[in-house]
Design goal:
The chain is α+β, with helices and mostly antiparallel strands. The protein has two domains: 87-319, Spore Coat Polysaccharide Biosynthesis Protein SpsA, Chain A (Alpha-Beta Complex), CATH 3.90.550; 329-471, Trefoil (Acidic Fibroblast Growth Factor, subunit A) (Trefoil). The protein has twelve helices and 24 strands. It has helices at residues 13-21, 63-70, 86-97, 117-126, 196-201, 215-225, 256-267, 272-278, 291-299, 305-312, 316-319, 464-471, and strands at 2-3, 24-26, 41-43, 102-105, 110-112, 130-139, 146-147, 155-158, 164-167, 182-183, 192-195, 229-241, 329-335, 341-343, 354-356, 373-375, 381-383, 392-395, 404-407, 417-419, 425-427, 432-437, 442-447, 457-462. Strands 5, 6, 7, 10 and 12 form a five-stranded mixed beta sheet that branches. α6 packs parallel to α7. The longest helix has 12 residues, at 86-97. Bound molecules: manganese (II) ion. Residues 327-460 form the Ricin B lectin domain. Keywords: Disulfide bond, Glycoprotein, Glycosyltransferase, Golgi apparatus, Lectin, Manganese, Membrane, Metal-binding, Signal-anchor, Transferase, Transmembrane, Transmembrane helix.
Length: 476
């Protein structure tokens, strides 16, 4: 949706509670404010005992209704594509017929909050080569409750598999007033405002990108590297419904991976290698023709990606280092008392760790067992050898809980372990130690006891230098 005008409504705390209690909700984007009517409503009934599903009335398929309704708003023009073009090319179509000085892109499942636009326009008025993004608040897909994201204002970033990530605003970039706009390396999705002329000078979006995905990296890299900048604006707030699953099919022959590779090959220079190291399957994907993209980059005299990393995303490698720092310990983890090894059986989130007979060298890659782990630079323990860790971490919740695999959050906390000189695996937040019983092969947390052999664990390989650094607290 490309818009120049939008109805807005403030969501107060009272309304928030109302949203979570009431059964029916107006679709406010279509609300007729004058008559106080809703254009569409979605009704969510609380699940009565014995009934299987919530009842949901979808808004009618829009077509003629949309035209009839929008005829009341002379400023709104409806532009239709002839065939399915996907988000990226459809946005470009909207932008190509827009006449205003500033383009604002929002998803259709957004609700702009009160006074969302002036703080964005203000930034662009000061510097027409700035792209600005509102704070994206969360509208719950179940009950339309409205709240800020966890951590609220953060910088946009990415990891080296090109997943979008959020990182804290470093103190160097924090203004005296928390409502001051701040620089962001990458926009979250596609919610932004841009001077129309500047957008087209930048080449709009790459039309070789299919349907959805990667375009937020493209526009972000491009604006920074080609003489512009990008700011997040805390005073501008737009609610966004985060869905649980993708409710449509993507046409065959298109893939997110291909889009990402296309963006990486155009903009990321030698840094693409870090992505291929983690995603070797990307090496063989075809990106399609990149000639016009590379010409654009040359024509605009854009800086290189190294400049971008050093100047714009300089704080990113602290959270997502392109080269993983060496781990402190890896290989099998053998219990001193029983001589048995920790085994996660290729489990995922929720799997309890157990003891099992240690596998012989060379017999490691069996489907039934998984006994190779890495105690890495984030000071968490993950299945896999240092070059191929899985994204599950040893996780404990108390001094007597079992130890399970859980999705790694990389933020230490309940996944933070210390491998101490006495061979104990110490869990900092619970002040407990990893223990086990060979009889029933359980592994669990316990009060630390330096005398107990069941609490001593022997890693197959240890890098003493790195481990000393962990234990001296130098890395945290
Ligand atoms: Mn969206």
């Amino acid at each position: 949706m490309v818009i120049t005008a939008q109805t807005t409504s403030e969501v107060s705390r009272e309304e928030e509670q109302w949203y979570s209690r009431k059964t029916c909700v107006c679709l406010k984007n279509y609300q007729n404010l004058e008559q106080g009517k809703c254009f569409s409503t979605i009704c969510l009934n609380d699940r009565p005992p014995g009934k299987e599903k919530n009842e949901i009335f979808h808004p009618e398929h829009l077509k003629a209704h949309l035209e009839e309704y929008m005829s009341r708003f002379p400023k709104v023009r409806i532009v239709r594509t002839k065939k399915r073009e996907g988000l990226i090319r459809t946005r470009l179509l909207g932008a190509s017929v827009a006449r205003g000085e500033v383009l604002t892109f929002l998803d259709s499942h957004c609700e702009a909050n009160i006074n969302w636009l002036p703080p964005l326009l203000d930034q662009i008025a000061q510097n027409p080569k700035t792209i600005v993004c509102p704070m994206i608040d969360v509208i719950d897909h179940n009950h339309f409750g409205y709240e800020a994201q966890a951590g609220d204002a953060m910088r946009g970033a990415f990891d080296w598999e090109m997943y979008y990530k959020r990182i804290p605003i470093p103190s160097e970039l924090q203004g005296s007033d928390p409502s001051d706009p701040y620089e962001s390396p990458v926009m979250a999705g596609g919610l932004f405002a841009v001077n129309r002329q500047w957008f087209w000078e930048l080449g709009g979006y790459d039309t070789g990108l299919e349907i959805w995905g990667g375009e937020q990296f493209e526009i972000s890299f491009k604006v920074w590297m080609c003489g512009g900048s990008m700011y997040d604006v805390p005073c501008s707030r737009v609610g966004h419904i985060y869905r649980k699953y993708v409710p449509y099919k993507v046409p065959s022959g298109t893939s997110l991976a291909r889009n990402l590779k296309r963006v990486a090959e155009t903009w990321m220079d030698e840094y693409t290698e870090y992505i291929y190291q983690r995603r070797p399957e990307y090496r063989h994907l075809s990106t399609g023709d990149l000639t016009s993209q590379k010409e654009l980059r040359k024509h605009l005299k854009c800086k290189d990606f190294k400049w971008y990393m050093n100047t714009v995303a300089w704080d990113l490698p602290k959270y997502y280092p392109p080269v993983e720092p060496p781990p402190a310990a890896w290989g099998e983890i053998r219990n001193a008392a029983s001589g048995l090894c920790i085994d996660s059986k290729h489990g995922s989130t929720g799997t309890e760790l157990r003891l099992d007979a240690c596998l012989k060298e060379g017999a490691e890659r069996t489907w039934a067992h998984e006994q190779i782990f890495t105690f890495g630079w984030r000071e968490d323990i993950r299945p896999g050898d240092p070059l191929h860790t899985r994204k599950f971490c040893f996780d404990a919740i108390s001094q007597n809980s079992p130890i399970t695999l859980y999705d790694c959050h990389g933020m230490k906390g309940n996944q933070h372990w210390s491998y101490r000189k006495d061979k104990s695996l110490y869990h900092l937040v619970s002040n407990g130690c990893m223990d086990c019983s060979s009889g029933d092969k359980r592994i669990f947390m316990n009060k630390c006891d330096p005398e107990s052999e069941t609490q001593q664990w022997i890693f197959q390989k240890v890098n003493a230098t790195v481990l000393d650094k962990f234990n001296s607290g130098a890395s945290s």
